[in-house]
Structures are given as structure tokens and as C-alpha cells.
Amino acid sequence: MIDKSFSPAAVEERWYQRWESAGYFKAGAQQEGKEQRPSYCIQLPPPNVTGTLHMGHAFQQTLMDALIRYQRMRGRNANWVVGTDHAGIATQIVVERQLEAEGKTRHDLGREKFIERVWQWKQQSGSTITRQMRRLGASANWDYADTEGQKAGYFTMDAKMSRAVVEVFVQLFEQKLIYRGKRLVNWDPVLGTAVSDLEVDTEETLGTMWQIVYPFVDGPQPSQDKEGKPIKLRGMTIATTRPETMLADGAVAVHPEDPRYRHLLGKRVILPLCDRTIPVVADAMVEREFGTGCVKITGAHDFNDYGAALRHNLPMIVIFTLDAKINQNGPKQFQGMDRYVARKAVVAQLERENFLVAAEPHKMMVPKSGRTGVVVEPMLTDQWFVKMDSLAKDGLGVVARGEVKFFPEHWAKTYNEWLGNIQDWCISRQIWWGHQIPAWYDDQGNIYVARSEKEASEKAQGRKLERDPDVLDTWFSSQLVPFSSLGWPDKTPDLEKFLPSDVLVTGNDIIFFWVARMIMATRHFTGKVPFRHVYINAIVRDAEGEKMSKSKGNTIDPLDLIDGITYEKLLEKSTLGLLKGEHRERIEKYVKSHYPDGIPAFGADAVRFTFASLASFAITLNFDLSRCEGYRNFCNKLWNATRFVLMNAEGKDTGTDESKPVKLSFVDKWIVSRLQRTEAEAAQGFDEYRFDNAAGAVYRFVWDEYCDWYVELAKLQLQDPDEAVQRGTRRTLVRVLETALRLAHPIIPFITEELWQRVAPLAGKKGETIMLQPYPKSQPEKIDEQAEREVATLKEWTVAARNLKGEAKIIERVEAIVSGPDIGLLIPYVAALARLSAISPVSEDQFNKTDASFAVVGGAKLKLKIEVDPAAERERLAKEIARIEAQIAQTEGKLANQSFVQRAPAKVVEEFRARLAESRSTLTKLKEQQDKITARA
């Protein structure tokens, strides 16, 4: 017999160790001695090696694991390829902070020693997230592509993956798809590196819009105002939110059709504070109605201006150092100043010298680095780029042809819009941790791209070479994972077997970062798509729909949901490192209001069930602890139901001996029939990525049908003196339960494994683990609609009897009488479930002799043999008549809708008509009873 109650922690630890040590997670685990099975593969979006499991990870990985377990049970050669990303910038920041605590910088160590230090940190702390994934139950192929022996999958900086990165870079360079050039990029002045557009967050802030006059070299010029009245212009008045960048201006631009300035084109104006003059040019990018209709062109420090500067052949003057200070190109009095110090100094001097026309508050969007939070600076620097036009065109084609499909499909529009407006990709980063670019330079600046230093030296014919210090953008190596993790550039069997993978489960935030780039790269180097389907999962928010954020205190550690945490420890964890102040007080208030008693231990299965039940096609989901509590209750109910089955089946005849007779009641046939429908519904949910539907089907069947009804009905059948009936009941109990455990396993693996080990032998099943058992497949021939109708009627009678007792406030057993069509087959079940001492069929006259409340089910009536209060009964009847009349009106309205009648399936329309007829019959009987009681009064 199993333990009296379910203890998740012990079960989880025991079974995960067994699964992994037995090699069940490996591809091909279920194929030994069998014919080759079709492959199924999922690629994990590799989490940062610096990372820990957060709610988004836990949600996403629950869905991936459910799919892998489902397909493994369907006999597929399931390979969940996992690994971690070296996370260039993020990892370098972690290690540099460690050095900072020691009073050092990476420059004190030098590049080689610093990289050694990063590898040392990776070996010690880099597997945290993969250990946490195991706690969730991830049946990942940990040994696959693992070259370091840590059972953590691949690492994007390991030798095999690095070889693929170098090969891709060299081939793209040789195909003239990679080039080096001076281009404007987003620059993080704290990290001292370029960052991609996708790593820049825009944040609304209240700034200042300054208006500055640039005087004409030739003195005031005639013009006109917006109303066309003649005026004299001292100069061109521009508006800017970044006055410090005026020191690098190359021109003032106006719209070519603006009548106020058309005649001034070609004039030159004095650039205030600088010993330079700049021209007035015409450019259609200028918005005539915005501000003064004049804009300054700062080609080296603004992305819009960069294009204009190229069009007009203007000088690109870089005014900032790489740490955002004014360089030697600025006026002497500002050189060396930080950009924001320089801003104040520039504005002050403009005001003193009468160039400042106005300064007004202005709301604007400011670009900030997602890594450091500092405002990024558009900076003209030498970088490496990938030409994207041809790659993007091919990437658009595979989605248009349906070779890659998005679920939900509306995300394809987001993908198409980005690829349709793509820019060349800046792939170089000015940091030390990462894949160093395989390019070398000689003394004359010639570039040699090669697979090794030896190969570069041969190309340079012995010239002295120096390697490019830059590293590649982390996403450059991540985009190769679909094929590099499978052994490319070698032609391995796994490339044939597992590429394309079947589905990518990921968030909408990396459709650009990763999804699109994987499609383009995989197509270019293998001719295949990386995956057939892309399932975009919802973003996890808190119970109120707010974005989860450490600053708000509303984040939840998934492991705290599994293991539980006290209020004190949760508060300490949430405010770790925060000093007294408004921020800390806000978090303390949130934790106290939402988790006054801490978080109870729900166990991994309940957490997984919660995630699966919330996984619809919505863009966001609200995570509520009460849902976890509900699914923990589900696990407990499943455990208790299994205890009942084992108590009544272990050591007894469960129908495994085919020579012994078995009698199946309509109740047994009903639960088997319902099981077939549930199997079909669950499979459809998994196949369509509607995890919520699959989870809902399992929940409703196990809780509502099996536990609440069948187990209770089986208790009666187990008391039947006919051994064949008992044998049939025990057989149905164990076989349906065993099947339900397999049905639920992909979602709740731990409890189903624990229970299956005890139930399976009773059902005649053998095997080392539920993981490798076949997933239940619906058998439509076992659907018994007659049995379903009979049990539906049984439920109605039981509910009606319970309601009558509830309304009469009767707890003890009482007798009931029934009038109408024969329900003899149902009587023992209804009496047992409704706790009635007896149910006696009587004539209509006998039935009507008492004024007790009655219920109408189908064509029959049920009444308790008790004395009643006529006034109370009249009130009850009035309420019931009103309810039935409303029900009739609703059904009549539906049937009066010709659109519904014509479009709905004929069976559905017929069901509505039958429902209407039954409601009208019930109403007639209720009114007859109402008339009788009224007459007696």
C-alpha cells in the first residue's frame, strides 16, 4: 500500500535520479531491440550560463518537457537538445563585478588571465540553471552534445560549438556577406562596446527641448512666418534635446518645399561656440510642421542624421570619446567633460552669448542599454557587419511557403515586418569574453580571415599579424545552435535525423534576436529550415496582470513554489542587498500583502499542472497561487483515489485472467467511453499546442468523472454478490486508472510514475517506467453513447435527490418515492450516492398525495417522504418555475436564430430542440404541482 498522503519532495528526488541514471532521457532510449522509430526533436532556447530559473523559464520548460514526454510515449525517438549560452556581455559583467570587489579590473589581469577567470567561474557556478531545470522534471538529453562531462548539454563556447562559429564566419566572409566598415552603431559607454538595436530599451522621460539660433554668415535674411507675413531672420533656429551634439553638426536642413526657407538653400550659418560655418540644405526627412521646420544634421551621433549626412556628403564629425566625453574635435573649453556635464556647459554658454532662443519641457523616448541601463550613444566606429538582404529574403520565403509555421499564427506578421525592414547586423563587440573574431591584420591594415592563426599566417605569406581583439555578438553563435549542436560542419547522422527539429518553444521577445536569425542561418548553411513549428508562449505576469520585476517585489522563484518558503525567508530574499528606503519599503509591503504566510510547498507536479493549464494562445498569463493550490489538491485527490483502488484491488482478482467471466455494467462502460473522448481531447491539445485544453481534459476526467463519480459508483458494485460484477469493477478501476496515469504523465510526471508502479501490475502492464509506455490512444469503437446517456440521467437523479435533501436541510437517510417511467436500473446507485434509505416507485395518485418538494428528471418525478411547509414549497416552486422559464426563453431564442440553425451541426440543433421539449414538459409538471398546493391552501 502507498503512503497515506502524497509527499512530493521525496517522490521527486527519488524518481528523477532513477530516470536520469537509467538513461531514459537519451534519444533512442525506448528503441533498444526495436525497429527504427521516427525522430522528434526540440531545441531549448539556451539560457545564459549566468542565469537562474525564473517563472518564464519554468513555464516554457514545462511545455517543452510535456511535449517531449508525450512524443516519447508515442514511440518517437525524442531528443530534447539543451545547453547554455556563454552570454558574452552578461557573463563578463558578473566576473568584472567580482574583480571590482577585490579592488581590481579586467585590465589588471590582462585578457588571457581574465578569460581564465571567467572559465573558472563557469565551472563553479555555470550549471545552476540546469540543476534547477532538473527540479522541475525536465527530461532533457543532458549527455547529448556535452563535451565537458558536466551533464549540462552543450555550451556555446565549447570546442565543438566554437569550431562551427569560426567556420560560419569564414564562409560568410568568403561569400562577401560579412564585411568590416565604419558605421553608426548603438554604443554603451559603460561597457565600452557596441550593442544591437534589439538590446536597447526605450524609456519615456521628461527632458528639455532647446531652441538655438545659428546666425547667417551674411547677416539677417528676409523670410516669412507660418502665416506668410514677411519677417527678418537673424539665422536658422533649430530645436534639439541634445545640445551638446551641436558641436558635431554638419549642416542645417529644411524641407525642400517649405516656402519660408526655400530661398535660403545654400546659405551658410555660423555654428555657435565653434569656429566653423555649415550649409543650409534641403531634405525631405524634415517635418515642416514640427517646431521651426529646421533641423540640425549631426551625422556621427544620430541615426536619422547619418543617412542625411551620407546623402549630402557632409563631414562625419565624432565629438565623443568611447566613454562619452567630449574629445579633441570639440571646443577646448568642453574637452574632457562627460556628455551631461558638457550639456549644461554648452547651454550656459549659448545663453550667455544670446544664441539660446527658448527651453521647454519635452516628453521623449530615450534609448537605454538593456545591460547597464545607461543611455546609449550613437557612435561612428569600425565594426563587423553581416549583409542581411538576401538572407532575409530567403527567411521570408520559408514562412510564406509554410515550411515554418507560427502558433499562434499572428506572430508571423511580426516576423515578416521585421525581416521586411531589416538592416545589416553589427556582429562585433568590444569585450573580451566570447568568440574572438577570426581575423588578423598586417602592418598595412590588410585583413586575413582564417580558421586558425596558422592559416592566416599562410595567407599573409609570413607577415607579422595581430588578431582583431573584438568578439562576436552572443546571438551570432546562438543562431547556429539548430545545426551546430548536431555536429555541423561535419555531416553527422544526427543532422539528418534531428534537423529540422519539430517545434521551437520560445517567447515573442526573441523572435528577432533568435528565431529569425536561426531560420536565415540554418537555411543558408544546410538548406533546411531549423524547425517546422514555432510556438510563441505567453509572458508570465503576476496575479494582477503586472509585469514581474524585482524592483516591484512581485517575482516568484519557481523553486519556492515547489519547496515552499516562509514569510521571513521570502522577505529576506526579496530585499537582499537593499538599504532602507522607499524601494525596500515598497517590496516589503508587497510581500506582506500577498504572502503573509509565505508560500506553501506545492511540489513540481502542481506547479507544472498550473503552467500547462494557463498555456493558451494568449499573449500574457496571470499567475495566481490559488491555481497552484487547486492543482496540489488534484494531486492529493489522485493519490487518495489510487489508495482506494489499491485497497480494493491488491491481492484480488482484477480480471487479468481472461478465462474468468467478467460482467461490465453501464457504469463501467460509461467510464471507458468517457476515457476514449478524453484521450482524443488530450492528444488534440498536445498536437495543436493547446496545453490548456490537454490539461483541462485530464483534470475534468480524473476529478469530475473518475474520482467524483466512478469511484463512488464502484463502491456499490464491489458489494455485489456476483463475483463477475466485482471482477469487472476491479478490472475497470485499475485499467482506467492506469490509462489515466499515462494520459497525465507528460504534465505531472512524478506522481504518475510513483502511482503507475503500483497500479500497472494490477492492470497487466509491465515496464521499468511509465515514461516509455505508450501514450493512450482513443478507440472510438469503445465509445458507448447509450451508457453515457444512462449515466447522465443517473447524475441528474443523484443531483436532484441531493438538492431536495439540501433544501429540506436533511442529513440523515430518508425514503424517496418516484413516479413516471421506470428507472429501476438507476435506483440502487441514486439511493447510495444521495444517501436515501430507499427509492420506491409509486403511482401518480400516490405521488401527489403529499405536498413535499419534488424534482423532475426527464419524464419522471422524485419526492422525499417527509412533511413539508406548504408556504415554503410554494416559494420553492415559484423560483424553480422562473428558472425553467428563463431556460426555455434562452433556448427558444437560440432556435429562432436562423443563422445558428443553418450553420450549426444538425446534431447540435437537435440537442437544443430536445432540451426545449424536456424543459417545457418539466415546466408543465411544476405548474401542476403549484396549482395543487395553491388549491389545498
Give a structural overview.
With 937 residues, the chain is an alpha/beta fold. The protein is 45% helix and 17% strand. It has 31 helices and 31 strands. The protein is elongated.
Features of this protein?
elongated, 937 residues
What are the SSEs and their pairings?
Elements: H1 8-21, E1 39-43, H2 55-73, E2 77-81, E3 83-84, H3 88-101, H4 106-109, H5 111-125, H6 128-136, E4 154-155, H7 159-174, E5 178-188, E6 193-195, E7 200-215, E8 221-224, E9 230-233, E10 235-240, E11 251-254, E12 268-271, E13 276-282, E14 294-297, H8 303-311, H9 339-352, E15 356-369, E16 377-386, H10 389-400, E17 405-407, H11 411-420, E18 425-426, E19 428-429, E20 439-441, E21 447-449, H12 453-459, E22 466-467, E23 471-472, H13 474-478, H14 481-484, H15 493-498, E24 501-507, H16 511-526, E25 531-537, E26 539-541, H17 558-563, H18 567-574, H19 582-594, H20 604-614, E27 620-622, H21 625-649, H22 666-687, H23 691-717, H24 723-744, H25 749-759, H26 785-807, E28 814-819, H27 827-833, E29 836-841, H28 844-847, E30 854-857, E31 860-864, H29 870-896, H30 898-903, H31 906-936
Parallel strand pairs: 1-2, 3-4, 11-13, 17-25, 24-25, 26-27, 28-29
Antiparallel strand pairs: 5-6, 5-16, 7-10, 7-15, 8-9, 11-14, 12-13, 16-18, 19-23, 20-21, 20-22, 28-31, 30-31
Helix pairs in contact: 1-25, 10-11, 10-16, 18-19, 20-21, 20-23, 21-23, 21-24, 21-25, 22-23, 22-24, 22-26, 23-24, 24-25, 26-27, 29-31
